[in-house]
Amino acid sequence: MKGAVLSAFRAPLEIRDLPEPEVPEGGVVLEVLACGICRSDWHVWSGGDPVDLPHVPGHEYCGEVVAVGEGVTRWAPGDRVIAPFILACGTCPSCASGRQTICPDQALPGFTRAGAFAQRIAVPFADANLAALPPWMDPAIAAAMGCRVTTAWHALTGRAALAPGEWLAIFGGGGIGLSALMLGKALGAKVVVVDIVPEKLNYALSLGAEAVANAAATDAAAAVRDITGGGADVAVEALGVEETTVSALKSLKKLGRMVQVGMPAGDHVTMPIPMDAVYAGQLALFGTRGMPSWRYPSLLNLIEARGLDLSPLVSRRVRLSDASTELAAFDGPAAPGVAVITDLSS
C-alpha cells in the first residue's frame, strides 16, 4: 500500500510502498476513504510534538472495514465508519465512567502509532470507539469528524455548556474555529470570530458570524467586549499560542467560560496568563482534547435534524502527495477552510 512517511522533521513526506497493517486483536483494518490535514499534524511534522521517526502522520480519518480482528463484535467487512483520534481502551475506570479522552491506555494514530496518511490503517479498540458513517455524509466531511468537528462539539457542549442566545468568541478561524462557528450557530449562539487573515474573517461572515475582529489591526479582546456589549459568555482558543490565549481570557464577561482547544507546543507549552482577570472576573478555564466516542450520536443527530451543512469546512480536496505542501502552509497564515486527502493513490 502507499503511504506518506515523515523521515526528518520539516522535510517533505516521502510517498512509499509500505507493508500492509496487521489486524489488531479487538481492532480492524480500514481502507482510508479520506483523511484531513490538521494543525496537529503540522506539530508532528515540524517537531513541536515530536514522534519517533520514520513515522506516518494523519489522525483525522474515516474508512471502510476490510479486516476484523478477534473479539470484534460490532463491525464487519464493508462497514463504513468514523474513528475518533483518541482510541480509548474501553475497559479502564476512565472509560467505564465515560471519560474516554483521559484513558491511560489510549492509542493515538498519527502520534503514538502509524496514522492515516496511507491507503490502509490498523485501528485498535474498534468496538469501544468507532461510529457508523451515516450514508448521507460525504467521507471528506466525515474525516473532519475525527478531530476538528468533534473537538469543537465537545468544547462547546461538554465543557463550556454553550447556551442559546449567548455570545461565543472564537480566536482562530481555522478548522476548529470554523467548526465551532457552524456548531455554535446551530446551537443558537451569537458568534464573533477573531483572526489576522482578512480572507478568513470574510469567510466567517459568509458562514453566519455576527461580527469579526482583525487582531492584526486592533486590540482583539477590547473589540470583542465592544461587539458583545461587555464581553463574550464563552471563548474558544483554537491556536494554542500565548497571544490568543490571553486575548480570549480578556474578552470574557464576568463569570465567562473559556475553552483551550488549541494545543500548546514548542515555545507555547508554558505561557503566562492574566490570573488577575480570572480572579476578578470569576472566570472558568477549561482544557479539552478530543471527544468521547459515546457522544457521536448527539452530534450526528444535531447535524441531521438541523440540516447543518458542514461542506464549507472543506475547501481543498487533495492527493496524498500534496500533504507536504499543505503541512508547510501552516508555517504562515493559511487559506480559509481545511484540506482533506481524498486521493490516497498518488
Automatic annotation (TrEMBL):
Cofactor: Zn(2+)
Keywords: Metal-binding, Oxidoreductase, Zinc
Domain Enoyl reductase (ER): 4-341
InterPro entries: ADH-like_C (IPR013149), ADH-like_N (IPR013154), ADH_Zn_CS (IPR002328), ER (IPR020843), GroES-like_sf (IPR011032), NAD(P)-bd_dom_sf (IPR036291), Zn_alcohol_dh (IPR050129)
Molecular function via GO: oxidoreductase activity, acting on the CH-OH group of donors, NAD or NADP as acceptor; zinc ion binding
Pfam short name (any one): ADH_N
Annotated SMART domains: PKS_ER (SM00829)
Family: Belongs to the zinc-containing alcohol dehydrogenase family.
Listed PANTHER family: ALCOHOL DEHYDROGENASE-RELATED, L-THREONINE 3-DEHYDROGENASE
Name recorded for this polypeptide: Alcohol dehydrogenase
Highest classification ranks of the organism: Bacteria, Pseudomonadati, Pseudomonadota, Alphaproteobacteria, Rhodobacterales
